Amino acid sequence: MIYTITLNPAMDRTLWIEKIRTDDSNRIKREQRYAGGKGIDVSRVLTTLGTVNKALGFVGGFAGEELEGRLLNEGIACDFVRISGETRTNIVVNETSTGHQTVFNAKGPEIKPYELMQMIHKVEKVESPEIVAISGSLPPGVNPEIYRKVIEIFRGRGSKVILDTDGDALKTGLNGLPDVIKPNIHELERLTGRKLHGREETVAAAKALRRQGADTVLVSMGAEGILMIAEKEQYLASPPKVRVENTIGAGDSAIAGFIYGLSRGEPLRTALVYAVAAGTATTLKPGTALCRREDFLRLVPKIAVTPIE
Ligand SMILES: Nc1ncnc2c1ncn2[C@@H]1O[C@H](COP(=O)(O)OP(=O)(O)OP(=O)(O)O)[C@@H](O)[C@H]1O
Ligand SMILES: [Mg+2]
Predict the structure, then answer these.
(1) Is 283's C-beta closer than 6 angstroms to any atom of ligand 1?
(2) Residue of the nearest CA to atom 13 in ligand 1?
(3) Quick check: is 242 in a domain?
C-alpha cells in the first residue's frame, strides 16, 4: 500500500468579493470549500492516476469532519487520527474587481502528546507500507523529531520514504534517512544556508544532501523541471513550454507522479519523467484543481531528459 502523511491538513475556504472595503461589511458573492493539505493533494493525484493509496494525518472537530467527508466524496481513501482540537481553516479572498488574492493561513490545532503517540502507533501497524510520502508543515508545538521518528519506523518496515517539507522539519527529517527528498530551489537554499547561483551550485548542494543521507534528491525548479541526483545517475528533466493557469499543487503532483513510476516498478529516470509530467499537468488547471490523467499522459512523451555532469 502507498501512504501519504499530512500532519497539518486544512479546510481551505475561498471567498469572492467585488472590492474589499475596510472598516465596513463586505458582501460575499461566492464561496467554495476544499479539503487541503500537501499529502492530501499527493493522494488526490495518485487517485487520478489510478494508484491505490491511503491518506494519513490528524483531523479534529467540525472542520475535521468536513475535511474527511469531502475526501470520502472525492473517493480518496483515508485513515486519520482524531484529535481533540479543531482542524484549521485557511481563508483565501479573491477580489474580483482587481484580481488580487489575499490568503490568511491558520496555524493549526495543538496536538496533544498522546495524540502524537496515536499517530506513531498507527505508523507502526498500517498494513504493508511500500511507499510513503510525508508532506508539508508541522502543527504548532510538534517537534520536527516526529518526522525523523516516522521515517525511521517506515524505513525499518521496508518502505521507501519520500519527504517533502521545509526548514527545521526537513533538516531533522533528513536525519531519519529518507529515500527521496524534493526541495524546490528556495527550500534547498534554506537547507544549505546560502543562495545558489547557477546549475553547478545547485547540483553541488543536492550532492551534499545525498551525502547527508537522502538516497535520491529531486530539486524542483518550476518551469525548468526537476534535477535528479541519485546514486548512479543524474538528470535534468524539463517540461515543454505550456500555458500556465495556476501552479498551486504542482510540487505535490510531481511527488505523486514520481510515486506512480516507483509503484509500477519503473526505473528512476522514468519516475522522474512522470514527476515532471504530473507537475506540469497541474499547472494547466486553474485554482486548486490538480492534474488530469489525459494531460499527464499527453505530456509524458514531451518531457526532455538530459544527463548532467
Ligand atoms: N511554470 C511552470 N511551467 C511548467 N511546469 C511547471 C511550472 N511550474 C511548475 N511546474 C511543474 O511542476 C513541478 C513542480 O513545481 P515546483 O518546482 O514549482 O514545485 P514546488 O515549489 O514544490 O511547488 P508547491 O508550491 O506545489 O510546493 C515542476 O518541476 C514542473 O514540472
Ligand atoms: Mg513544494
Answers:
(1) yes
(2) 279
(3) no
